């Protein structure tokens, strides 16, 4: 092929690539516009009062009732006078106190559908649900300690419900949350851990905030996306998270001896840990740092874990909550 023909071919190829690229950009832009009108999806979960006005998602005021609202749920949520989600314990000597994060709290579920409410109502137990969205193990154990010391709560048993995934800390929040909690306390202005998985999570969250098309895609294909996009943590980061979590499990054991209650550690997983088959790896890592036998849950949700989690939101749906009730009933 002569030089002139080569140059002509390259020009044609470049023009074709440019034309295709422009076509793709136009198609994506058009799809963005169409989905905003035909299938608008609002990002994340919102807190609304009874009149539909927005509330600060991070504030949980005592004696309040609000709605957790998203594309997947509209959940009535009641916080009692002592600042925790119902059920309300009969006195300061509850049968069971549950501690943990948003899975324990029951994000996306109405009061009567949380596994804490269902289980305690079925067994006629006096219970406290001290779960708080966004909490790591450090926060959960500290909140329990506050109720033990300041409110003089004397539980018979405490269940710590942990969420973990060792092959992607961005999904198994407890380990990574514990790192960030300590980091923030040691250096409030610092930002030590800007690892690749954290960057991936920030980028994906930003895209979901600005693009309705991205939200539509996630809404319909979230299980596939979650299963595919997993970034393994650096080993030193994983070990740091495990060590900090180990310290809290040992602290919980010390509190149990001091305040004379039994405790159990229940391990739950983000849906992709189960669908990818990496949950055994997570379980072994958590069992290795726990002073007592850890109660596994992954088999409850096999072989179809997607049936038990909200697709977009990622927390337990009603079916998942029911499975957790089955677990606690089996432990009686």
Explain this structure:
The relative contact order is 0.12. The protein is α/β, with parallel strands linked by helices and 332 residues long. It has helices at residues 3-38, 102-105, 115-122, 137-149, 173-186, 196-210, 212-228, 235-259, 271-275, 279-289, 318-331; strands at 46-48, 54-55, 64-69, 74-79, 96-100, 127-129, 157-163, 262-268, 294-295. A hairpin with a 4-residue loop joins strand 3 (64-69) and strand 4 (74-79). The protein is built from eleven helices and nine strands. It folds into two domains: 1-38; 77-331, Rossmann fold, CATH 3.40.50.
Task: Outline the fold blueprint.
Elements: H1 3-38, E1 46-48, E2 54-55, E3 64-69, E4 74-79, E5 96-100, H2 102-105, H3 115-122, E6 127-129, H4 137-149, E7 157-163, H5 173-186, H6 196-210, H7 212-228, H8 235-259, E8 262-268, H9 271-275, H10 279-289, E9 294-295, H11 318-331
Parallel strand pairs: 5-6, 5-7, 7-8, 8-9
Antiparallel strand pairs: 1-2, 1-3, 3-4
Radius of gyration: 23 Å
Overall body shape: globular
Order of helices and strands: HEEEEEHHEHEHHHHEHHEH
Sheet with the most strands? 5 strands, parallel
Indicate the low-confidence ranges by residue numbers. none
CATH superfamily annotation of the largest domain: SGNH hydrolase
> How far apart lie the N and C ends?
81 Å
What structural class should be given to the helix and strand makeup?
alpha/beta
Helix count? 11
Q: What is the total domain count?
A: 2
For the record, the CATH class of the largest domain is Alpha Beta
Neighbour order of strands in the largest sheet: 6-5-7-8-9
- Which CATH-level-2 architecture of the largest domain? 3-Layer(aba) Sandwich
Overall pLDDT metric: 86
Helix content: 40-55%
- Share in β-strands: 5-15%
What name does CATH use for the topology of the largest domain?
A: Rossmann fold
Query: What is the count of β-strands?
Result: 9
